[in-house]
Amino acid sequence: MYGLDESGQKKGLRTRDVCCFLFAGVLIFAGGVVGGIFIGIYAYHGGPSGDDVTVECVMGKDGGSARTTQQTTTLPVHTTSDQSADCEVCPRRNPFIPQTEQEVFAPLSSTEMKTVRDFLISKGIVTDVIGGNVTFTSNYITGIDIYAPPKKDVLEYKDRNGRFPGRHAKAVVVRGGASPPDVMEFIVGPLNGATRMELTELSSAGENAFTARAINFWEIAKMEEVLKPIQQVLEPLVKESFDGADFNGGELFWWPYNGPPGLNHDVRVINLNALFNPAYVSGDYHLLDMLPLSLDINTTSQTPSEWTIYNIHYLNQGPYSTAQELLDDYNAGTIRKVKLPAGYRDTLVQRFTVGRDTSRRLRVHADMPPPRTYEPKGPRYTIKGHRINWMGWEFDITTRMMRGPALFDVRFQNNRIAYEISLNDIVLQYGSDSFERSNTFYTDATYGIGYYTGTIKGVDCPEHGTLLETSFYDYYSGEAVTSRSICVFESDGEGPAWRHKSNSYQGGLRDSFLVVRIPGTIVNYDYITEFHFKLNGQLQTKLVATGHIQTAFWDAENPNHGNKNTDDSPEARDPFGFRVSDFAQGLIHNHLFGFKVDMDVVDANNSFEVIHLKSGDVVDAFKKMNPTVSKKPDYFRYNVTQYVEYETVQTESGYKANPLEPKYWTIVNENYRNYWGAKRGYLISPMATSTQTQVDSHPTLGAVSFTKYNCAVSKRKESEQFLDSLFDGFRLDSPRGDFSRILDGENIVNEDLVAWVTVGFVHIPSSEDVPMTVAVETGFTLKPYNFFDRTEIFDVPQTYTGEYGLDESPPDFRKCRETD
Q: Copper amine oxidase N2-terminal domain: which residues (predicted)?
């Protein structure tokens, strides 16, 4: 590096030269960094047009687990080709384990339903199967469900290698040929063929009157025949009022599900409401165009020619005993009239269609696909039949035609948490200023919650989800219907399950949880039941409601509305809700979801503790623990404090959630304690929820009296399978399933307990609920409460860097192409 110059001086780089070179190098380096940043920003945002992005993909036969090379490719965002065509497809691990033994709780198979049907026929209990052959004097099946065997038999089998308890079914049979006619429930089983099948009556003959049966399609068909003379008489009124429509045109129908068929269990009176429903021919129910024409039809007799029609109303004017009386007043001009504008019928489909509004421009970037998650190495859960394992959780999932979804034998970290968590019923109660809608009331289990018919691709179940089968009995065809309607997938919580950041360390865990989702439709409403299994032992049960609302006809000239020149003008609202369309009102109503929660905390010997949050004198805080305390300790600065009181509830009781009097509802085991001496338990925590809003004198309360409580606790009995009866919604004056039969004062200390949890919400529809209600949710969480000695979440890889522990990160996420 060094030598002599011509003068004999040592040659080399002079200090100034070195500084210049160094300075130039720094400038070049800085320029490169700045340029790189701008190039990176430019590339990240796709340049000035936003049309290009950088896609990084990992190559390799194992999808990233072996040594890989990275290739960066620039592709246009809006291309229709596969942007990851050169990437390796993510490995897909098959989550299914071969099922070799019979399941206790899985939905009934087609073969099992046929076995039940044929057995009931052979016993002479069922006389007609195919719907077209059924009459009002037939004995026919309306539902067949899986029926859980006694709990003690199941636990003997699962915990102590006892005998398989067998699979059983419950069948609901309408016996029009009995004397007197009635509705019966039977248990049939075992279905596995190991032993001879037996028949057990769940109800006695005549206990459930024939009038308590659910409304079905052949009763509706007979009503339509009986109504034809009425329709002919009223044709001039109907055409003039409803834009030229008539009952023969394929748009105008009678809606038969306006509420219970009368208050007297001896009489079956069905209220019918005229409506526009152009979707009816395809089997859908569009309830946004109710019309102000209604009547009652008495269908008590098994002979349709004896049915009577009365209480005819038009614009709430009536009642008229005959159609001719109404038409005479209409023609005489002595009653108010309504006349829909010409062309109104042409807008029907447009109003209930829920596809994208093509008359509006897309939002900016709405033509780009939204983000979604996938499994880079396949599912982390396994499925054996309908039993699922994931990250320490293990449980059975099933569905029942009448009652809906259920979990059985739920365990976490080898501890049974609950024996059963099951939806039992969905209750809706409406209010309206109209004859046909004012008493609308539903108990959905009466008609069947579990008519599941599959999922909507890309909506109900993510692309990486796994589908399991459900089943129900189609009483028209006499055959079973199966579909893949249970979606199982792991969800990215996209946030921290826990995190902490300090000066000396930082750590956290990105949340993920297993979801079991069952979407279904009950007439106009869609309900999605979800169970979320968390890494720390929490189990959330969630209900989501969406679909079409039910409306009433908006009568702008309603005399009950009073002065129009006020804020409560009939152009906007009335005491029952808001106007949501030209001639439609959204009706106030509630949705209440009743669950059975059979907790087994450590074992089946549990107690119910209520922890009351209070505020008051310091002495009061100590009195429960030490009655001798008489003065405030000096270390309290002032004589008021927040504290808790612990109550072990002695007998069966019910509670309402009240934010002004907060309480913790806990199921605890008196015989097992954690390391710190606290009773091991689980907390029942409802989401922000509504309880029953009707006064106790409301006629429907006896049939759904469980809705008075958000949480009620009882001693478990095999005879108390469900929180209400399938038939009480149709016999309001004499309910057999009143909740008082369950809360009858028995001891609940150190017993096998059931918590009956009811959650829900009040819905006052607004214009944003048309044409479709965007998802509204409610639910409850079961949370470990002193069940463990510490947070049960640190046995999976965490994110941690700092001076107090070993640096760690979750398994590396290598990019790959999502499975097709």
A: 136-195
